Amino acid sequence: MNILYVTSEVARYAKTGGLADVSAALPAYLGRAGHDVRVFLPYYSRVDERGTTLEVVLRDIDIRLGNHRYEVAIVRASRPGDAPVHLVHCPALYRRAALYTGDPDEHLRFLVLTRAALEACGRMQFAPDVIHANDWQTGLLPLTLKVRYSWDRLFDRAATLLAIHNLNYQGIFGADVLADTGVSDAAHLFHQDQLREGRLNFLLHGILYADGIVTVSPTYAREIQTPDLGAELDPFLRARSTTVVGILNGVDYTEWNPEHDPLIPAHYSAADRSGKAICKAALTERFGLPHGADVPVIGIVSRLAGQKGFALLGDVAPELLRRHRFQLVVLGSGEARFEQLFRDLAAAFPRQVGFHAGFSNELAHMIEAGADMFLMPSVYEPCGLNQMYSLRYGTVPIVHRTGGLADTVQLWDPRDRSGTGVAFDHFTPEGLRWAIEAALALYRDPAAWRTLIENGMARNTSWDVQGKLYEELYRRLTVTR
Ligand code: ADP
Ligand code: GLC
Hints:
By secondary structure, the chain is an alpha/beta fold. It folds into 2 domains: 2-250 and 464-480, 3-Layer(aba) Sandwich (Rossmann fold); 274-460, Rossmann fold (3-Layer(aba) Sandwich). It is 37% helix and 20% strand. Adenosine-5'-diphosphate (ADP) binds next to α1, β12, β13 and α12.
């Protein structure tokens, strides 16, 4: 199949979260499976070009959106082992300090990505069978294809798939951006009530017009069709229920594997975990904490956003840290209130809590390898990747039973010694306190702890399996078309 894959993040080039990991690993799998995949990503000034071969493949693509006009070039970036990435070069839009901005032209930054990808197909004579769009940034792609390219035989076979990695980021702009969409002549195809109320929601229009909708875990696929986690789009998702599917993300075990991870101080495997103790000592040292081989270390690596549930942790952490002997190492950046929370905890418990504010892939790997437990008390979690990385690194996940966390972490059951971690049901301080205390108690039971770790390390959520589910979905979509 010919697959056009449009995304705002790709790991090793530009990353803020899990979308990047998926947008690197899934296309790489599809390439290995023999498909022709063309990935399109903005050429942000922050794109990491180390080890990359760059080649300008298309120039002078003229994109007009309302009164705006952009000259775009396409730069093909390739690295061994990865699917090649087509970088959309448009400095006027992508030379910014961050991947995402609150600038007045934010909608244009991603409309240009969408249009450039479609225009480039024409210039490359690449006829996609499937166009795989990701999140709100590409939400207007299906509608754009229908309105602007319906004449173009190149797209006759193309089925559109919208992947929702997080329903709560919707790309909601003022209705005045309609003029900039490049499809304003089809204003009647936009959601009329919302336009009248002065809003234009990118993700909603993806949900309305994509041929297929996929989200990143089976449980989240159900949850987003309920008012509870539907972020006000649940009525639209329910209306298209037969086209909504959930496919759990895979893990790129070439990058996340303690047997050969180049970013950790010692390697280990399920059969011989001795290297993990070395990783733990290095981790506490890195965070400036005293080391005790028998003191459990809980790790966190996260965007510090409301979604991730740290407000709840703020309620229970001081008391738990006073009552129990354990350490907490945190890597994250984001909302100031959470950075402050962890800074305060580190100041109040200097021998127990270490906080590194920022983004560091190396430190993320060190924490996965060196911590004993990994905490993800997310309010909601479409898939979550870190808990799956943790399983492979023999680091026991403590999670709120929601979304992909519910699909990947099973509560330890002493009767049959099954389970891979601790999952709590009630998103309350009591729920979280119970989960952390349960994990700390299990740690004190060496036989149980060993089995728990072995169960987790034996789990395998590889893209070689999950990728096949995408191939099946693509086939179904193309047949329906
Ligand atoms: P989300 O996409 O919602 O942020 P995921 O669990 O799917 O959550 O993916 C997060 C990814 O981003 C993981 O690969 C994680 O290691 C990485 N990550 C998050 N925050 C940081 C950080 N501060 N430094 C390094 N990596 C981070
Ligand atoms: C989003 C979600 C996360 C998911 C990731 C990749 O950022 O918040 O749960 O794992 O996308 O699909």
